TrEMBL record:
Gene coding for it: pgi
Single Gene Ontology MF annotation: glucose-6-phosphate isomerase activity
Pathway given in the UniProt record: Carbohydrate biosynthesis; gluconeogenesis; Carbohydrate degradation; glycolysis; D-glyceraldehyde 3-phosphate and glycerone phosphate from D-glucose: step 2/4
Active site positions: E328, H359, K469
Protein name: Glucose-6-phosphate isomerase
Upper classification of the organism: Bacteria, Pseudomonadati, Pseudomonadota, Alphaproteobacteria, Sphingomonadales
Length: 499
């Protein structure tokens, strides 16, 4: 495609050469917004590269598509829907924003009622949901709910009964609120977990188990049909995609456990990032610059993966959250017009927690044969209260790893040599509060969007998850047209009754 040619023709200097050549490199490739310092100076982006990507963005009408998304147009073309997650934080089409506000008010009123004892004594929240209906709330509660958490929260996603039994062991059924989170209210894993949780409550003589159920869903009728009282159904809009839904009623466990004020701060932080994304020129636009770096490595340097490492225990779930956000959104092979994309799309997102990962997987990052753009996410403010200098060690390690990846080291012994010139970016948060976390997550959402627009794909559908679901359902019903290998596995596991 001709509009990529300028990008593909960019000269390939090393990172150290780029630093030597441009004394103002930090000015060009760092920026501060919404309590986050972004540093892409240790990537191969240059002024020319950014100009070339900005030209591509213009050719792909990024600004128009961004405005169309915020304006409520049906940018999710394959599902003929608007994309409404920004409306949850007050940034979007007026009627979408008004509806989101109504839904939030309903959620807040229910939380107030629960706190006032309307459902009896509640000490714990058992949230069942999967994918986007679990990863977001889990990240929020884990990151922000370390102290002054008002309720014990368990987020159970896996259909493996062990996950649910672990939660049963922790909680008293008499004082547990069962929260069923499912956009469609049909997802097999979630409905099975919900049924088993009801059974657990019943077996323990909870008087009215269904009276302790809250539903978070875009299909309220199905929730009512299942047995949830209409007053305890918290809806959200169809236009809010599962992996973009933590801002909606899907964020209920965070809102109840952390308190409504924190939930609102989360939304405000995200709204601040929305405005930054909408109003900043591309050369100063954090999601756009991050996406340019992503695309430089996937398209020009053929990187197949990217690896975010959270140098903060509170963000240990961030890499898994980003895996769904990025891979489910941009793991596509056709354009919005149904044509083959003809180039690589999303990198495989993996990652982990620093410093643990340094002693496990960083060997490959420093000396392996794969090019892996690394992303360090760290927080300046210390949270632990230990007398020893843990936080100082944590941050210094993050920064030293980035420097080492870039610098490398030559030694006489090839086994002890490091090639260097390995890219990384750093996101340094002033503090980890609800507002900054909201901004951080919104940054990632918009970065995914920019990647999608420049690749010409729809980031908001996920048809790739359907076939496996259909085949599992067919097998469960004793049918399915399975190959001999799969039939053999089914028989070996003793599941062949109906086949
Ligand atoms: O299988 C993929 C998926 O549809 C995700 O996109 C979604 O977040 C998850 O399943 C859960 O779906 P639901 O919220 O409808 O239960």
């Amino acid at each position: 495609m001709s509009d990529w040619s300028a990008i593909e023709a960019l000269p390939s200097s090393t990172l150290l050469e780029l630093f030597d050549a441009d004394p103002s490199r930090l000015d060009l490739l760092t920026l501060d917004t919404a309590g986050i310092h972004f540093d892409w100076s240790k990537t191969h982006l240059t002024k020319d590269a950014i100009d070339a990507f900005a030209a591509l963005a213009k050719a792909r009408n990024l600004a128009g598509k961004r405005d169309a998304m915020f304006g409520g147009e049906h940018v999710n073309v394959t599902e003929d829907r608007p994309v409404e997650h920004t409306a949850e934080r007050g940034e979007g089409k007026a009627d979408s924003v008004a509806r989101a506000r109504q839904y939030h008010a309903r959620m807040r009123a229910l939380i107030d009622a629960i706190e006032a004892g309307a459902l009896g004594e509640i000490r714990s929240v058992l949230h069942v949901g999967i994918g986007g209906s679990a990863l977001g709330p889990h990240l929020l509660v884990d990151a922000l709910g370390r102290d002054d958490r008002r309720y014990d929260v368990a987020i159970v996603s896996n259909v493996d009964g062990i996950a649910l039994e672990d939660a049963f062991d922790r909680f008293d059924p008499a004082t547990t609120l069962l929260v069923i989170a499912s956009k469609t209210f049909t997802t097999t894993e979630t409905m099975l977990n919900a049924n088993s949780a009801i059974q657990w409550m019943t077996e323990h003589n909870v008087e009215d188990p269904y009276g302790k159920v809250i539903a978070l869903t875009a299909s309220p009728d199905k929730a009512v049909e299942w047995g949830v009282d209409e007053t305890r159904v918290l809806p959200f809009s169809e236009g809010v995609g599962g992996r973009y839904s933590l801002w909606s009623s899907i964020g209920f466990p965070a809102a109840i456990a952390l308190g409504w004020d924190k939930f609102e701060e989360l939304l405000e932080g995200a709204a601040e990032m929305d405005r930054h994304f909408r109003l900043s020129a591309l050369h100063e636009n954090a999601p756009a610059l991050a996406a340019f770096a992503d695309l430089y490595y996937t398209q020009v340097r053929h990187a197949e993966t990217r690896a975010p490492f959270a140098y903060d225990e509170r963000l240990r779930l961030l890499p898994s959250y980003l895996q769904q956000l990025e891979m489910e959104s941009n793991g596509k092979a056709v354009t919005v017009d149904g044509q083959p994309v003809g180039r690589p799309t999303a990198a495989i997102t993996w990652g982990g927690v620093g410093t643990d990962a340094q002693h496990a997987v960083f060997q490959l990052l420093h000396q392996g044969t794969h090019l892996v753009p690394v992303e360090f996410i760290a927080v300046i403010e210390q949270y632990d209260t230990l007398a020893e200098d843990h936080h100082r060690q944590l941050l210094l390690n993050a920064f030293a790893q980035g420097a080492a990846l870039m610098k490398g080291k030559q030694a006489d012994d090839p086994a002890r040599s490091y090639s260097g010139d390995r890219p990384s970016s750093t996101l340094l948060l002033d503090t980890l509060d609800a507002r900054t976390l909201g901004a951080l997550i919104a940054f990632y959402e918009h970065r995914v969007f920019v990647n999608g627009v420049l690749l010409g794909i729809n980031s908001f559908d996920q048809f790739g998850v359907e076939l496996g679901k259909e085949m599992a359902k067919a097998a469960d019903q004793g049918g399915g047209d399975f190959d001999v290998s799969t039939q053999d596995l089914i028989r070996r596991a003793g599941l062949a009754a109906g086949l």
